[in-house]
Design brief:
Length: 422
RNA sequence: GUGGGCGUCGCCUAGUGGUCUAAGGCGCCAGGUUGUGGCCCUGGAGAUCGAGGGUUCGAAUCCCUCCGUCCACCCCA
């Protein structure tokens, strides 16, 4: 029978054997968040579509062609969450979190949806772990946010990562810089690739991160934004760098780093593994001081990052990084006669109550087949109940590793199994 | 949205116009006598060769379309 159904294009079944990786990442993230004082906040999978078009930017690819937009039966325009920051800011406003001590530190672990063409490390549904610190403009918060991201990768054991850092100014200095950039490119437009011709018009910052061969020389000579920041932005950037230095986080200043979302201001950053590959970014973020106001709140600064869980896992696997194993079943209860069947079921239940992970045989398999199953499951012990055991209220407890077995009272099984921690 | 590679049992693979009513390995199920696993042996289930159309006396093998998948562009996590 050919498969009739498969997971929708660009989506992923997370199989049992992959679960330990997810658990490892999530447990580590969650522990770090606790250490840094971040509290978990989960928002709905869908939101009003305009929340995203307003914040991320009407002209961005995310909004223009990647958002899953639909109308519900009541005629509401909704969108599957294409990024994590806007919903958190919405929730901050809706729940009056401005009355809490600022900054409000939040984290999330949520599915993200983008209608993209799938390829290595790129999915239509992926998971982002992210944090947001809302309500404080100080550069120390920038450093703290970046530190948490960096520490996450450290604790996961990822190596060979580079932290790219840049500042893209604010409403004060950006217009002047964009003008400068346009002036620089004006007489060079014929040297530049097709895409860049368009970027010159609608998003000149993007000229800087073009990857076309022919555009590289021009980019190399372009004036870096960091030389033209206003005093406030410049000082902010300097303080951020000294904080990072203070806690020993190495970063690479990258004047070509801009981001694809409109709401960013000042600090932007991105972490990349050393391996080549198109989907290099495993975590990135930036400051968004104008976003809350744009969503109808009082002017409130904020900063955060999003981290692609599937990409992190790809890198863990690539590096052969060991992760904590999932819990193993310890005991498999086999039975010999039909009469022992319910005893076996009962024993399994009792063992679980006593904290021993246990499975009972089912169906009408022969004892031999049951033992084979026990072996395949990788359990430490097989508990066998047959005619003899029924008589005496005992079980035959067999240690599969070396075949040692003994008869023990039914009630002693848990203790016996827990004696020798595996 | 653009370009390229690929598509044979759950997984990996053989087969490139007739010998294919499709072969093997892994995995799964059963058995190797009397209450017991791992190795070994035997057997079994499981594929109309991604889908639809076409060429041909004849197609898994050639052509077209679609779908899926992978890779790159783009974008981003």
């Amino acid at each position: 029978m050919p498969l009739q159904y498969r997971a929708p294009r660009g989506t992923l079944d997370v199989l049992p054997q992959d679960q330990p990786y997810r658990d490892f990442v999530q447990d580590t993230a969650s522990r770090l968040c606790a250490a840094f004082g971040y509290k978990r906040l989960e928002t709905p999978v869908f939101e009003e579509a305009s929340l995203f078009s307003r914040s991320v930017g009407e002209a961005t690819d995310i909004v223009q062609r990647e958002m899953y937009v639909f109308q519900d039966r009541g005629g509401q325009e909704l969108a599957l969450r294409p990024e994590g920051t806007a919903p958190i800011c919405r929730a901050y406003l809706q729940n009056g979190m401005h009355v809490l001590p600022q900054p409000v530190r939040l984290w999330y672990w949520s599915p993200i949806f983008r209608y993209d063409r799938p390829q290595a490390g790129r999915y239509r549904q992926h998971t982002q772990f992210g944090i947001e610190a809302i309500g404080e403009a100080d550069a120390a918060v920038d450093a703290e946010v970046i530190e948490l991201l960096w520490r996450l990768f450290e604790e996961l054991g990822l190596t060979g990562l580079t932290l790219h850092l840049n500042s893209i100014g604010d409403a004060n200095c950006r217009p002047a810089y964009l003008q400068l950039l346009r002036d620089y490119y004006r007489d060079k437009l014929k040297l530049v690739c097709n895409d860049c011709q368009g970027r010159y018009e609608y998003n000149p910052l993007r000229l800087l991160d073009c990857k076309q061969e022919r555009c590289q020389p021009l980019i190399a000579e372009a004036p870096p934004f960091t030389d033209y920041l206003c005093d406030d932005c410049s000082e902010h950037f300097q303080r951020l760098r000294s904080y990072l230095d203070e806690v020993g986080i190495p970063c690479a200043l990258n004047p070509r780093l801009v981001r694809g979302l409109d709401y960013y201001s000042r600090t932007v950053f991105e972490v990349q593994p050393s391996e080549e590959g198109a989907q290099s970014s495993i975590g990135s973020g930036g400051r968004y001081d104008g976003l809350i106001e744009q969503l109808g709140g009082r002017p409130t600064p904020g900063i955060g990052f999003g981290c692609g869980v599937e990409r992190v896992i790809i890198n863990l696997k690539r590096q052969g990084q060991p992760v904590p194993a999932a819990q193993q079943i310890q005991v498999f209860v086999a039975f010999q006669t039909a009469a022992a069947r319910s005893q076996a079921f009962r024993l399994a239940s009792d063992l679980r109550r006593q904290g021993v992970a246990t499975l009972a045989a089912g169906g009408k398999r022969s004892l031999k087949a049951q033992m084979r199953q026990a072996d395949a499951l990788g359990v430490a012990y097989a508990a066998i109940i047959g005619q003899r055991e029924l008589q005496g209220g005992t079980v035959t407890l067999r240690r599969l590793a070396d075949g040692f077995q003994e008869t023990v009272p039914m009630t002693d099984v848990a203790a016996r199994v827990q004696e020798e921690p595996k």
